[in-house]
Fold this protein.
Amino acid sequence: MRVGVAGLGYVGLPLAVAFADAGAEVIGVDVDAAKVEAIAAGRSYIEDVLDDDLARTRERFTAAVGYAALAECDAVLICVPTPLTPNREPDLGPLLGSAEALGAILRAGQLVVLESTSYPGTTRERVAPLLERGGLRAGTDFNLAFSPERVDPGRTDYTLANTPKVVGGLTVECGDRAEALYRLVCSEVVRVASPEVAELTKLLENIFRAVNIALVNELALLTDRMGIDIWEVVAAASTKPYGFMRFEPGPGMGGHCLPVDPFYLSWRAREYDMSTEFIELAGKINQQMPYHCVAKLQRTLNDRGRAVRGARIAVLGVSYKPGVGDIRESPGLKIIELLQELGAEVDYHDPYVAALSQFGLSSTPLEDIVDGADLVLIVTAHPGIDYNAIAERAACVFDLRGVTRADAGAEVVRL
Ligand SMILES: NC(=O)c1ccc[n+]([C@@H]2O[C@H](COP(=O)([O-])OP(=O)(O)OC[C@H]3O[C@@H](n4cnc5c(N)ncnc54)[C@H](O)[C@@H]3O)[C@@H](O)[C@H]2O)c1
């Protein structure tokens, strides 16, 4: 079995390693030559893949920049990015570029599976026509399916192997082939009737999270005015054994998925004379959170007789979630931008993010920034850091993640 993977990022690289581990011969393709070189040198650039994983699969996993080698594959998985344009509309550029390049070398009998998140209809209406340009017909001459990636970078309890994989084929045979392929690396495959069902399934999962995070964030805005501790409320509500699911408030949403994917659906919905209110509202509330955090930081300093201008702010954690170095759409970046605009002297510590060149900053050792800071701002609570010890030592702490004790004292303020 030869498996091709187009796009070797957070999704594609672990997938390539998993298939190589399962005994397949894997050919990865990426337009980023630096990534291809790193793989050849056995250097991983994704937290979930260790250098050891690349060393172990070296014989069976090779990477290239061009698509030509994918012509030899039995199956090709497309894992390229699906971002938004600056106007927050779907940017299918990388996906269409990938499908076009694949279409140029496609052979009869191959299976193509799209894993990139997109709106319902993408596989059938956008990808299939590009793959068919050479004269082969999807569902007849080659197989085509959509199977959403559910990887949660940094997570170890649920991985590709034990997370059910949803598969929707263009035809029953397309679905059968995709199912057989994923059975090599996943313990459970969930078949759905079409690529559209699979595409919307992924979006529902992400919209569900975005809406629930927005709900608890809106309550955090309210509890701030009411003088109630939102973390205590969430913790207490979470003791209900049924009918409640815990979501954490925070400085907003980050990553490639939650701030982006829901808007693929709201864009598509307009074609059907629908405006998806929950998605828009959740986006609005979550986007407002960094501004709220900075306003509350201003109030916190003001209460201590300080202005933001000239204040030394130590930001702890700038990636969008704990345990990873992914800074895409991270609310930490927005917060630093707003603080710098207000004239604050910002430093940051993040063991996963060495530098933020756009702000002219690089990660400073923890002890060095905590002691001299007027305020320590906990934006992302990475594992292995004792936040209560920091709360005891720092002049003032503003905790956006609820990782300090509720009774930590007057110098600790929580979201
Ligand atoms: N990161 C996640 O947690 C996650 C989870 C589930 C689904 N997804 C979805 O998976 C897809 C990929 O996300 P990601 O996080 O792996 O992105 P990524 O940016 O980490 O990786 C994508 C890779 O594709 C490469 N690429 C771009 N255009 C290409 C082309 N035409 N041909 C070949 N390679 C190309 C890029 O250089 C990059 O290395 C997206 O649709 C995303 O929404 C991501």
Observations:
- The CA atoms of residues 53 and 61 lie 10 Å apart.
- The mean pLDDT is 96.
- DSSP finds 13 helices and 15 strands in the chain.
